[in-house]
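Customer escalation, tier 2.

The customer says the design service returned an amino acid string that "doesn't look like it belongs to this structure." They asked us to rerun it and document both sides in this ticket. The original structure tokens are below, unchanged.
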């Protein structure tokens, strides 16, 4: 008797699982599309830039409070690249990395902005030294593609 009950329960249970998966995906997609791409990091209401004592400063609302309950010290200078590096937790950008909990839809928006910034910076300044290994590799192959032009082609 009990065995029959258990068998009866198993089938509808796995049916439910299959039905729930597409619903959850659909919900995530709606939330993500509700956030338009950022033109720059200061557009995000979570990143506040302000003047204090004639100094440009900014704070990150995702950062958790210090152990004593105060807000973390603001960052000095309105460096959009550093603010993005802070939120995306990109190392080697001489900025403290964010330890806050960032919702996935915000995180992917920041990553998108970071990638666009890296591409812009690469084109504008060729600041290879500040970029990570993957991008340095790209630069190297670009240089070797150009270098044959420096020599007269054999005739
Ligand atoms: Zn933060």
């Amino acid at each position: 008797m009990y065995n029959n009950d258990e068998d009866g329960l198993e089938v509808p249970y796995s049916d439910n699982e299959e039905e729930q998966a597409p619903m959850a995906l659909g919900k995530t997609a709606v939330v993500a599309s509700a956030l338009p791409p950022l033109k720059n990091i200061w557009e995000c209401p979570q990143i506040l830039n302000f003047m204090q004592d004639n100094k440009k400063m900014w704070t990150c609302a995702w950062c958790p409070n210090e152990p004593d309950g105060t807000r973390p010290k603001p960052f000095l200078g309105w460096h959009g690249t550093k603010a993005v590096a802070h939120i995306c937790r990109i190392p080697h950008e001489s900025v403290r990395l964010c330890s806050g909990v960032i919702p996935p839809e915000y995180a992917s928006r920041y990553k998108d902005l970071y990638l666009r910034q890296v591409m812009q910076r690469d084109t504008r300044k060729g600041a290879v030294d500040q970029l990570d290994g993957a991008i340095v590799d790209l630069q190297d192959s670009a240089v070797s593609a150009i270098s044959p032009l420096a020599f007269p082609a054999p005739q």
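Tier 2 assessment: The sequence is consistent with the input. The CA atoms of residues 37 and 109 lie 6 Å apart. Residues 60, 62-63, 86, 98, 100 surround zinc ion (CB under 6 Å). Sent an explanation to the customer and offered a walkthrough call.
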